[in-house]
Task: structure prediction
Amino acid sequence: MKPAQLLVTISLMIVLAGVSPCLYAQNCEKLSGEVGASSRWGSGWIDLAAELRRGERLRVQVGGSATKVLIRVLRSGELPDDPVGIVGEFAVPANRIAEVVLKEDLKSVKQISVHGGPNPWGKFPLGSLNGPATLLGVERCFP
Result:
């Protein structure tokens, strides 16, 4: 098989498998920081210092047994006990990676977190059987 035919065959196999070929060509970086979790609140987080931009995508690897989660980006001056910085509610897919495209620039980010459980902060009913969430890792992908 010629190299060009091989490339077309491999690309077709990837598309038929339901995986976008450009998924692996994206410019992503793993965010690092101090990871924490709270079994009491059914949440997990990573403490870091970052500037995030509109259009960037966060790929959040969710642990725990939550089937739905809130993803939050907490900025300097915001308190973790307050329900602020929520960027979305997500059903956790089979691969346990929830993705969110940022709709605005977020400066002075100090924490990214996931929140599971039945009703985070008593304001976000995710379901009485929803389990806790932990955060296993975060990737930032550039547009």
User: Anything to note?
Assistant: The CA atoms of residues 14 and 21 lie 6 Å apart.
